[in-house]
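#dry-run=false #mode=assembly
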Amino acid sequence: MRLFIPAIAALVLAAPAWAQNAPLAAQACLSCHGANGAGQGGVPGLAGRDRAELVALMAAFRANERPATIMGRITRGYSEAEIAASAEYFSRQGR
Amino acid sequence: MTTTRRALLGAAITAPALVQAQTQARLLIIGGGFGGATAANFARRTYPWLQVTLVEPKTSFVTCPYGNLVLGGFRQIADITHSYDGLRARGVTVVHDWATGIDANARSVRLQGGQSLGYDRLILSPGIALRWGAIEGYDEAAAQTMPHAWVPGDGAQTLLLRRQLEAMPDGGVVGLAIPGNPFRCPPGPYERISMIAAYLKRHKPRSKILALDAKEAFSKQGLFQDAWAALYPGMIEWVPASRDGRVVRVDPRAMEFETEFGTRHKLDVANVIPPQSAARIAADVGLTDNSGWVPVNPVTFEARAAANIHVVGDANIPGPMPKSGFVANTTAKQAVAAAAAALRGEAAPEAVYFNTCYSHVGDDYGISVVGVFRPNAEATAIVEVPNSGGVSPRGNLPDQRRLEATYADSWYASITQDMFG
Ligand SMILES: Cc1cc2nc3c(=O)[nH]c(=O)nc-3n(C[C@H](O)[C@H](O)[C@H](O)COP(=O)(O)OP(=O)(O)OC[C@H]3O[C@@H](n4cnc5c(N)ncnc54)[C@H](O)[C@@H]3O)c2cc1C
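#status=ok
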């Protein structure tokens, strides 16, 4: 294991683990959509989806232009900037 | 990330000689439930330079959420029991002990075992205390006959209530005594009524549920009452305070509830959900106000009485937010982020809080209440974002109900993974 340590330390310094974490506004999404937005049971995944597609979807939920079970009630509480930052994060997660 | 890589990263980050972290600050967390476990896991994932220690007496955690499904026969206690091994694997030091005192000046916490733990920032999420004696005759001994099943502990209270339901004759009466606001999980008693009704309908259909309430109205009331009328017609009687619903005395020997105006109700199974306050440690160290709960800063969740001690979960006064596991989760993350910012000399991040409380009311039948909240412009209070949130639509909507039941299950799996995974 000792052999590995310098490589890992370098990796940590180059790409800090915390840079890959969801922004605070997106943290609540994880409590239903699963870790990194991977999806959980009947709740669809967000990870790896196109950023623009996610933003458009949320905008449609907010505007009541898309039938929603609960996402309409949720998205109307968030700002466009928060939705954009969350979409950006999820679009960068592996499926 | 694979487990191996995560474990190695954890090891690399905690080895101070290898990585010059910004600081080696100590984050101490008291209580390993919805607020505390979330805080520990989130802190390790997000701020690897924090040394995180969690103090929790129990070696595994039985959730309140989904306890009502155990009562209904839809889940086993094992399904809602979680280990702390996942947090240990993330690099959290888990100490199984009670915190008995906090010295805010010396920044140290005393444990029952005699040890003291120092901290730079403290997160306190100890949950609630049941106010024994607030209902005459209801003490810890009475709870062995008339379970509360509201603080799950090792699951014994929930299992006791379940066994009593199983032993009850068909045609018996299940009584519930429900407290006034504020209390843990506003829709919880009504989900419990529903889950008990689901069990009785199947196994003891001539039985009745008598719900005696100290309030006039309750969370998701219209949705619950619609579902009761549709799924369990004639089985459930809910009595508000104005119709003498407030239980003031219980008699476990006679198996009776007595209400404010002296009506006595004889019961076969009696569930008492007593009035509550913040857990004892919060009061002992002087963080509570006259209400018995802890006033907090709406951005950092520091106790008004002690900067540097962030109080999250049911113990605090959350403004318009409910005392829910989801709120404990979302506010714990903000509190950790605020603590980390303070340790780096930065301002607390902008806050947005979120809640969804799902309730199961029958097979494939779920309902919810959603809320998005923020500090007001002056940061003096928390307010709900206008035109957002709210409850599920009413009406005959089987697809909506079925989906919400599915989503509830996903919520439970996801949030417990977020806490313990
Ligand atoms: C029947 C029922 C159903 C519910 N359903 C839902 C639901 O569907 N959704 C939802 O969001 N919420 C639900 N809730 C509410 C949820 O359980 C609580 O809001 C949540 O547990 C609060 O988290 P907490 O961290 O404040 O307290 P807890 O989760 O109770 O954790 C507190 C922990 O602190 C420990 N502790 C206490 N004192 C000390 C001390 N001195 N030293 C060390 N450790 C200490 C305790 O042992 C405990 O493990 C439900 C509640 C009930 C009763």
